[in-house]
Amino acid sequence: MTVHMKRHGDASDGAEAVGGRLSRVDGPAKITGAAKYAVEQQLDGLAYAVLVESTIAAGKVRSIDTEAAKAAPGVLKVLTPDNIPPLKTASDWFGTPPPDAPYCPLARDITFSGQHVAAVVAESFEQAVAAAALVKVSYDEAPAIVDLSDAKAGDGIPIDAMTKEWGDAATAFAAAPVRICAAYNTPREYQAPMEPHGLIARWQGDQLTVWEPSQWLDGMARTYAEWFGVPFENVRLVSPYIGGGFGSKALALGHGAVAAIAARMLERPVRLVMTRPQTFTGYGGRAATRQTVTIGADAEGKIQSIVHRGVNETSIDGMWVEPLGSVTSIMYQTPNFSSRQNVVRVNSVVPGAMRAPGENPSAFGIESAIDELAYEVGIDPLAIRLRNYAEQDPHAKKAWSTRQLREAYAAGAERFGWSRRSPQPRSMRDGNQLIGWGVAAGTYPVRRAYGEAMVRILADGSVEVESSSIDMGQGTYTILVQTAAETLGVPADNVVVKLGDSRFARAGVAGGSRLAGVMTGAVHKAANAALDELVGLAISDPRSPFHALQANTLVVANGRISSPRGEGPEISIAELLASVGRDRIEAKGDTMPANSTAEERYKNYTTIAMALPHTEGDYSRYSWCAHFIEVRVDEDFGTVRVSRVVSALDSGRLYNPKLAESQWKGGIIMGIGQALLEEGIVDRRHGRIVNNNLADYLVPTNADIPDIEVISVGIPDPHSSVLGGKGVGELAIVGVAPAIANAVFHATGKRIRDLPITLEKLI
Amino acid sequence: MRDFSYLRASSVDAARQASALPGAMLLAGGTTLIDLAKCGVAEPDTIVDITHLKGLDAITVDDQGATIGALAKMSSIADHADIKSRFPAVSEALWQAASAQIRNMATIGGNLMQRTRCPYFRDGENFPACNKRTPGSGCSAIGGVTRGHAVLGTSETCIATYPGDLAVALVAFDALVHLGDRQVAVDDFFLPPGATPEREHAIQPGEVITAISIPASAAARRSTYLKVRDRQSYEFAAASAAVGIEFEADGRTIRDLRVALGGVATKPWRARGVEAALRGKVLEADTVRRASLLAVEGAIDHGANHYKIELAPRVVARAILELGETA
Ligand SMILES: Cc1cc2nc3c(=O)[nH]c(=O)nc-3n(C[C@H](O)[C@H](O)[C@H](O)COP(=O)(O)OP(=O)(O)OC[C@H]3O[C@@H](n4cnc5c(N)ncnc54)[C@H](O)[C@@H]3O)c2cc1C
Ligand code: SF4
User: Fold this and answer.
1) Out of A126, A677, A686, whose CB is closest to B231?
2) Which residues of B touch A676 (CB under 8 A)?
3) Interaxial angle between packed helices A359-377 and A736-748, expressed in degrees from 0 to 180 and rounded to the nearest 10
4) Quick check: A472 and A249 in contact, CB under 8 A?
5) What one-character DSSP code corresponds to residue A556?
6) Is residue A150 part of a domain?
7) ipTM greater than 0.95
8) Scanning A349, A372, A558, B138, which has the fewest C-beta atoms within 10 Å of its C-beta?
């Protein structure tokens, strides 16, 4: 039997255009194993590096004895702070000029357990692992601040930039007839991507090539270039596929510097891949957070005042701010508001971005608190949300570009059957199972930036799109095929998209759910330029069969060119290019203002400093969602299972509903994990996370996930992106944890304000 | 690189001889052994591969009971029609253990011999103190993260939980471990930590588990395994119970009851106190709940694992009551 497989999956009628349900074009390569991930490159002379990490959380390295390791079979080099060349400190992701200080990715001063202190490079991975165990590090240990609840942690550093205030929140709260006040905590959480972090680094003279999973090739290339003091153009990042990032693969990290140093010292390509335990300390997950939310309301539940205080942990010498007031300040209308935030230094690796940083824990606070207010006032949790609906951005005082949240509540409630909810806690059960229904909303800002793309029409009529942006499973390959196909009027099967090589047209970070909006806009623009050139040639080149028509435009559809009213020939793009003697048409387009300087363009792709504020101009731009969730809680065992999810989401126009739905479901699944399972558990005596593997750090399995129904309620938002889409990837996780906590309260009458909701909290 | 020699045993006798050598370890499905070798806990000098030995994977069930060869896979035992009908608790314990991939690889011999999931035991680099791994070095768990640790059968030297599910069902139904010619009751096969937590099994160097046998009983035929955990699948038990009941002819009075606990003790834990309290009683919810509290008699918590003391009796009671309903 022969199977005819279309290259782009099951593109059936209508699926090829933007808005169609085209299947992932990278799917077959991944399923058959043909997709080659960054560290799977086979290079001649490859050597293997293994990291040695600190076993104390605070103190100093007294000495490192490398004799035994050096003498071990196959060992090429043992790297310590004493024998590696210093690098230069690189600028941060805003491009802020760095201090003129050396950077050493191997530490002498220890600020967390698991810090890189040495590395062993050997001919084989096994030899390097064995020799790394022979490196003897001795320390002078100092007391560590293990986490936010450590008595030594203190109140932390106020972050004034996070302060948001209007009206007189304290006075209004004191005067309010209904008042609630509660504290909400979220633990350390980890991105836990399936593909661990790692890279292969190779130097050829002053040229560095790095094969590394990356959410941001140009940003990481800039960091490597600055570390080693070589021009940006000398660094090439290659990252064709990424096995999950969730925010953790956007920046060049210390282990990358170690591998690149080793490659330079040895003049050989070096591979370094973190072990799973190392992925819990080699870079940061989501910071642990604490929030107090106080709400004052009138007797009908109309909010008079919100006072919010937040704290997140950061490391001893790094700064991570998890913006905890981000949802608090915009979700509900209130005349009086105050939000402030501190960060507290603890002995941990500097926390990092993890799916919806800020909005996610922020929503856990405010969306739990509004639920508490609903019970306090005695009205339905959905009704209280509508009663306090923000008709405009209460903080920026600007109109929403689009806000389909009311529609999301309505559609979700209808599908879920919310009107059949019995209001009292503990009033719904099935045998030993207490049943609870909860609702919560979520939001994420529309992050925008400028993009660039190369579009080529080749001699055979096929189309090639190139960009140094990436696909980590969210669907960039696929939607760019659709954008190019629709704009140029060619079948999707004739389009090849190439991503993940920093030699291609430049791209900013794939983070903050911005990439789809940025890149569809850029490809649309470049493809239009290519189309203009194609049509221009067809009209004006004397060798073109359309020349005699004297038309001022032509139609390109399904890969064929004709005149609008059908007179004259109809020929393929390939035939036209042959007739005018061209082997290709090439157009590079970007969406930057035309007068942008080269420096501004460089900055746009290699930093986030040029990102456009989501409240720029007249509008405030956000995606929105409402989650309706049913849980079943075993009344004897305290185990919580999610049995039903209906979520209605407003991401504006969807470029590909099939992929958007998958991303939403992925976010909801991750939210279920956050609500019920995920927590980095720290040994308080050693300041070390002990569940640093996927048997003990629990993420949901299929058995934990019910059918999830997602409903799109978005409408095209012209203020948010060229084609009308808003962010998709981060939105759906926001609000899941509070919806579950609210459902658990409805089921059991117990309010859990500490994530995750594990069984001992309910028995 | 740590070298070891690899030996393919040609017969059970050859496996016995080879495994008697110092530093030798048997390799069955490898799902425990390779894992522990990767985290540096198992450092064998010789690996004695027994996976291809013929005849060791047979499962035979007759009126006397079941005999299961040491190399039978977890998944094939769980799926065996006669095991399902005559020893449902055994099948259910296996289905709820580990993941499909692991069950397809792992053998019943290796399953009995699986090691604790105590995180300190598995990370010698960061936590040198562990009496089970390095006798006399101390116990890192006491005073540390103890959410998964045992509340029954602990000692001052070790509080590690026996993590497996199958052995809990086996201990409830008086199964025997066959070490060639010698047979040991499963309950005696697992040793409490006492002063020697490094000694976990009553097996001598040079001995090989060849089979498990489970005597047939009415209680085994009417049995169940209930496993409670935060994650619905692929997680060790927070608390579990293997329960079997035989009723008198009236269908209500308990003639024989078997109760064993998992996830809460240092070894598969037979709850004889519960059995004795309910034998001869009419099955009734309050009586069962009260008697189930005896399951945790003598339990000691270490902080974060306190919930197990509350949870375990509830699991026992639920298992007994649900079994009683399925008349
Ligand atoms: C992530 C994960 C989750 C798990 N979850 C569960 C769970 O929920 N419940 C559960 O019960 N188990 C669970 N397990 C444990 C799993 O069941 C065991 O790893 C498996 O049964 C071991 O069998 P094996 O054949 O692979 O043993 P191996 O790894 O080959 O051997 C294990 C040990 O037994 C010895 N051995 C093997 N065969 C014999 C023999 N015939 N005679 C004497 N000694 C022998 C070996 O020398 C070795 O020391 C889990 C394991 C993992 C990795
Ligand atoms: S509980 Fe037992 S296994 Fe765990 S650290 Fe203590 S001695 Fe070792």
Assistant:
1) A677
2) 230
3) 30
4) yes
5) E
6) no
7) yes
8) A558
Tokens representing A536 are 């221009």
Residues of A in contact with B311 (CB under 8 A): 637-638, 759-760, 763
Q: How many domains does chain A have?
A: 3
Q: Assign a CATH topology to domain B5-52.
A: 3.30.43
- What is the rounded average pLDDT of the residues A277-287? 97
B141 lines ligand 2 (CB under 6 A): yes
DSSP-derived secondary structure for A276-307: TGGGGTSS--BPPEEEEEEEEE-TT--EEEEE
Rounded distance between C-alpha atoms, residue B265 and residue A633, angstroms? 25
CATH of the domain spanning B218-325 = 3.30.390.50
Ligand 1 centroid vs B95 CA: distance in angstroms?
Answer: 15
The residue among B2, B35, B95, B126 with the most chain A CBs within 10 A of its CB, best to mutate, is B126
List chain B pLDDT tens, one digit each, 327 residues. Answer: 678 999 999 999 999 999 999 999 999 999 999 999 999 999 999 999 999 999 999 999 999 999 999 999 999 999 999 999 999 999 999 999 999 999 999 999 999 999 999 999 999 999 999 999 999 999 999 999 999 999 999 999 999 999 999 999 999 999 999 999 999 999 999 999 999 999 999 999 999 999 999 999 999 999 999 999 999 999 999 999 999 999 999 999 999 999 999 999 999 999 999 999 999 999 999 999 999 999 999 999 999 999 999 999 999 999 999 999 865
Domain-located, residue A191: no
Q: Rounded to two decimals, what is the model's pTM? A: 0.97
pLDDT digits (tens, 9 = 90+) for A433-481: 999 999 999 999 999 999 999 999 999 999 999 999 999 999 999 999 9
Q: Look at residue A324 and tell me whether its pLDDT is greater than 80.
A: yes
A474, A523: one domain: yes
Q: Which residues of B touch A130 (CB under 8 A)?
A: 1-2
What average pLDDT does range A382-406 have in this prediction?
A: 98
Residues in chain B: 327
* B216: phi then psi, degrees, rounded to nearest 5: -65, 145
- State the residue range of the domain holding A229: 38-143+196-280
Q: CB pairs below 8 Å between A and B: how many?
A: 89
- DSSP H or E stretch at residue A438: strand A433-445
Upstream peptide bond of A756 is cis (omega within 30 degrees of 0): yes
- Ligand at shortest distance from the CA of B227: 1
- Determine, yes or no, domain membership for A620: yes
Q: Which residue has the tokens 């791994």?
A: B133
B10 CB burial (10 A radius; 0-12, 13-18, 19+): exposed
Angle at A453 between CA A451 and CA A457, to 5 degrees: 155
How far is the C-alpha of B9 from the C-alpha of B16, rounded, in Å? 9
> Given an 8 Å threshold on Cβ–Cβ distance, is A639 in contact with B229?
yes
Crossing angle of helices A217-228 and A254-266, in 10° steps, is 50
Residue A621 lies in a domain: yes
